[in-house]
Amino acid sequence: MKGIRGISQLSRHFHVAARTRQSLAHPLAGLKLSPGAAHSLKDIHVTRLPSGLVIASLENYSPASKIGVFVKAGCRYETPENQGVTHILRLASSLTTKGASSFKICRGVEAVGGSLSVTSSRENMVYTVDCLRDDFDTVMEYLINVTTAPEFRAWEVSDLTPRVKRDKAQAAHSAQIGVIEALHEAAYKNALTNSLYCPNHMVGNITSGHLHQFVQNNFTSARMALVGLGVDHEVLTQVGEQFLNIRSGAGTTGAAAQYRGGEVRMPGLGSLVHSAVVSESAVVGSDEALTFSVLQHILGAGLHVKRGSCTSSKLVQGVTKATADPFDVSAFNANYSDSGLFGVYTISQPAATGDVIKAALAEVKAVADGNVTAADLTRAKAQLKSQVLMSLETSEGLLDAMGSQALAEGSYSSTDEVSTNIDNVSLTDVANAAKKFVTGKKTMASSGNLKNTPFVDEV
Amino acid sequence: MASRAPVATGRLLIGFRKWYYNLAGFNKLGLMRDDTLYEDSDVAEALRRIPENQYNDRVFRMKRALDLSMKQQILPKEQWTKFEEDVQYLSPYLKEVIQERKEKEEWMKN
């Protein structure tokens, strides 16, 4: 009896010893891992297939998976003959494909509790499916159908016209969208000048032929990336090899964006004037782009404390001295694959607009002249780092980051690399970036009651 | 079943089908078979989908037939629609529409 009791107490002693000595978060020392085990560590794996397709995945052991197909088929690749085709394509994700009817796609995805959505930017088009981990095969079938084998039946495409009109009407409600679309229209001669929304003269005139041609020319393997969260890398690679290899080649190369610097004024009856003044900045992924991002945070890139007074924003502090009326000002920063825009975005009362814009631009000039302290720089770097890291906290943000990087560079830079690069930005870099803005050819877009809004050659 | 009753598209029944087509008589008004289909919701949806030129031809044929019917006349024999010329232009679209409807009904059942 005593002996048996002793044995059970023995195992308890070993248990306690194991728990206190060995951390369960790290693999046991000296253990030889099997080849498959490497992929189970929480790493972002990126593979490039011979056809040019990039596969990126992260196994985060989440119960829900998220898979995205990223294609370099944003509105910058539209030609004058098919302006607006990407808007229709965005809405056409639920149309009949060779493998499934429109009804089946909708009901099939709903039946497994998943969702299929499309977003597009000026550079990329992203098809995303969310599903529970076990339903991966079902939703992937629909995703592959939608991205590689759409039929674009003439009557289904013409049925999309009311939805295009509704999208445009909704966008018209937002002054910011209006100003930013106008800003790009004024800033470039081609490619990036195209709007995300279908222009008025093309509503109802985009045909099935346009859609087919655009997909043929732009949805090629070399311009696509298949990204997954909560999926196994091997499985994803297999799917990519088997199904996304239909169209090889690089497709039509988009034209290089030519910056021209212009002005668009949109008079209106709004009680607020929205205005953006920008100049050409850096290409995405370059060191200069990072410098502009730091400069953006030095100048002020939005509230960090809700309903706060934005004391850390140089722009806000500068404009407060110029006007007592309500206003908002922040630095605008956009980077594309061959160009970028940097400047200030102001929202002000019609009577005070001139003063607000001049005060904001004076603040940027002050930075160009070297009026930035080391403390400002440290603060801005910390804000930029936290913005980058917090954007990766959501699965949408993480998928987007992985996909954009996989598409643009074919690899993924870890957050440590990004942090180090941010730390390497110096005061002179920031001053030079601000000088580039001050001396560069300006583009301006304004909307609202423009009685007191300066022209681009007056700022 | 198929071995006992000859398939309607078989070579043996062509003569019978031709005779029946001419007996039906709508070809004397210059109509095709698909022009005479009763316009229920499936046919209406299929009509929404056919290419514009086929739709315009259909409207022309029906207008001509209505005109002849009003005048209590028929077309001269050379202009009657021949059995070989009768194209079932609506059938592929109609089949598709019916298949889609059946798919919806299948999903509604469960």
From TrEMBL, chain B:
- The main location is mitochondrion
The alphabetized UniProt keywords are:
Electron transport, Membrane, Mitochondrion, Mitochondrion inner membrane, Respiratory chain, Transport
Looking up SUPFAM superfamilies in the UniProt record yields: 14 kDa protein of cytochrome bc1 complex (Ubiquinol-cytochrome c reductase)
What is the source species? Eleginops maclovinus (Patagonian blennie)
Superkingdom classification of source: Eukaryota
Q: How does it assemble?
A: Component of the ubiquinol-cytochrome c oxidoreductase (cytochrome b-c1 complex, complex III, CIII), a multisubunit enzyme composed of 11 subunits. The complex is composed of 3 respiratory subunits cytochrome b, cytochrome c1 and Rieske protein UQCRFS1, 2 core protein subunits UQCRC1/QCR1 and UQCRC2/QCR2, and 6 low-molecular weight protein subunits UQCRH/QCR6, UQCRB/QCR7, UQCRQ/QCR8, UQCR10/QCR9, UQCR11/QCR10 and subunit 9, the cleavage product of Rieske protein UQCRFS1. Component of the ubiquinol-cytochrome c oxidoreductase (cytochrome b-c1 complex, complex III, CIII), a multisubunit enzyme composed of 3 respiratory subunits cytochrome b, cytochrome c1 and Rieske protein, 2 core protein subunits, and additional low-molecular weight protein subunits. The complex exists as an obligatory dimer and forms supercomplexes (SCs) in the inner mitochondrial membrane with cytochrome c oxidase (complex IV, CIV).
Q: How does it sit in the membrane?
A: Peripheral membrane protein
Q: Which GO terms describe its biological process?
A: mitochondrial electron transport, ubiquinol to cytochrome c
List localization entries.
Mitochondrion inner membrane
Q: What is the documented function of this protein? A: Component of the ubiquinol-cytochrome c oxidoreductase, a multisubunit transmembrane complex that is part of the mitochondrial electron transport chain which drives oxidative phosphorylation.
Protein name in the entry: Cytochrome b-c1 complex subunit 7
One Pfam family name is UCR_14kD
Q: Which residues form a coiled coil?
A: none
Q: Which family does it belong to?
A: Belongs to the UQCRB/QCR7 family.
Query: Could you name the Gene Ontology cellular component terms for this entry?
Result: mitochondrial inner membrane; respiratory chain complex III
